[in-house]
Amino acid sequence: MTKKFTILHSNDMHGDFLADDKAERGELIGGLALLSGYINKVRKEEKNVLYVIAGDMLQGSIIDSEYKGISTMEIMNYLAPDVVALGNHEFDYGLPHLLFLEKVANFPIVNANLYIKPYYKRLMLPYLVKKVDGFDILFSGILTEKVIDSIKQDPLIGSFVTLQEASKEVGKICNAYKKDDIDLTILLTHIGFESDVELAKLLKKNWGVDMIIGGHSHTILEQPKKVNDILIAQAGVGTDQIGRFDIEVDDESNSIISYEWKLIKIDNRIAEPDMKLKRFINSYKSTVDQKYQTIVCKLSRELTHPKREIETALGNLVADAMAEASECDIMLVGSGSIRVKKIGPLVSLMDLLTCFPYDDSLTRFSISGAQVFNMFEHFMRIENRNGEGENYQVNSGVKAIYNEKDKKLVSLEIKGSPIELDKFYTVCLQGYHYKNSKDYLNISAQELEASGKTKVISTSAQEVLEEYLRNNQNIYREVEGRLIYQP
């Protein structure tokens, strides 16, 4: 016997609650009200519909950060996903708060490889079996190594995070729970598309995993990739689109015998907005608007941040602001800290906090030129610029040239002069990057601190940026060759 199912999937929604108004075309794009309207429409049209989210519901909007994710969970309850996996940003407000948010959710959250280490017990629901029209569908979740970056200060919590270890956790779930009556097995991951491909290669065929629905790398696909007979899909970032599988499953072979996948653009031509949800979101928005619509500054032009992996005009402005406050030679701003693709010319407090939602400390270190050179060569390497690595924006006065063919940093200038390997330079980092410096910059916290000249410049990078903008009107930045990648 075979049956048809429709699986809708989102990932990396990042508090993208509101539709974009394309007034010149009378078009509304994205936003949760339109997304909910489309999901409701499909649920009415098709018999067996499942909606899943592959991590990172939280962060990216002022509505989310103002209510520390509670608003997001309440809004997600309107969407009523069938199952959700954890992403790294679900941990941004701390592990205890995540456990509270789980109680707010009216939907199950699965993860198989996050453990309370001393007791070797999983922290979350490791799997879920949903019975749909007589068929049993098993879901499990796998998270990214970046989660460990967020919670590594907590000695009680650990995870099996390498792909090999994650694959073994999948095997445990499948070996223990994938009995004859499990007709379909779906992994919800948050490890990035390339890692999904590698994970699929590691999974044993007799474990019976049929699909990997992923997130984290914000990948847009033309069609799913098939690896080791496992379909792998992802749906970009935000709420402007949703992935849709229409599949036929055979309960004799417990496998997918046919499928069609589309990346569906969410706009007002495909669905009517869910007005109840729109009103609910607006109740949060009106409260936040009153608090955050004050004007911070006016830039002389719009500044953009189209990609994390390259130098951007907006990234240059943020790096320059923090470099001035910290009086450092080199300011490294995590590109992922900047959460919008454009800002200005008019910048409200809400615009600023949406652009830079992660408040963090700024710490200055004194390290050798050789160590600085090594840091740049590490984060500029081509394999780090794959949508899953950690990338940086740098301040004025820094110019680095990386040769992709030779895979090496060929030039690094500080304030117009070539770097001197035995000279000491001041480098400033956000707290998150300081804590994870070994992974991201190939220098340990102990090495950063070795000179004894470590200084916390500010406990709030957000406040540093706000004060800089308030006191510098009509400014702009442009891409000027601070970071150059030679092909």
Structure commentary:
It contains 15 helices and 30 strands. The chain has 487 residues and is an alpha/beta fold. The protein has a 6-stranded mixed sheet, with helices on one face. A hairpin with a 4-residue loop joins β16 and β17 (255-265). The chain is globular, with a radius of gyration of 23 Å. The model has no long low-confidence stretch (mean pLDDT 91).
Which spans have pLDDT < 50 for at least 5 consecutive residues? none
If you compute it from the alpha carbons, what radius of gyration comes out, rounded to the nearest whole angstrom? 23 Å
Which CATH class of the largest domain is shown?
A: Alpha Beta
Strand content: 25-35%
- Our count of helices gives 15
For the record, the CATH architecture of the largest domain stands as 4-Layer Sandwich
Summary of the model, kept short:
30% of the residues lie in helices and 30% in strands.
List keywords for this structure.
487 residues, 5'-nucleotidase,  domain 2, six-stranded mixed sheet, 15 helices, 30% strand
Task: Present the secondary structure layout.
Blueprint lengths: L1 E9 L9 E3 L4 E3 L2 H14 L3 E6 L7 H5 L3 H10 L3 E3 L9 H10 L4 E2 L3 E3 L4 E2 L4 E6 L2 E9 L2 H6 L5 E3 L3 H15 L4 E9 L2 H10 L8 E3 L11 E3 L2 E4 L7 E10 L4 E11 L9 H18 L2 E4 L4 E2 L8 H14 L3 E5 L7 E2 L2 E3 H7 L6 E7 H11 L12 E3 L3 E6 L4 E7 L2 E2 L5 E7 H5 L1 H5 L3 H5 L5 E4 L2 H10 L12 E4 L1
Parallel strand pairs: 1-4, 4-5, 5-6, 10-12, 12-13, 13-15, 20-28, 25-30
Antiparallel strand pairs: 1-16, 2-3, 7-8, 7-11, 9-10, 14-15, 16-17, 18-22, 19-21, 20-24, 23-28, 23-29, 25-26, 26-27
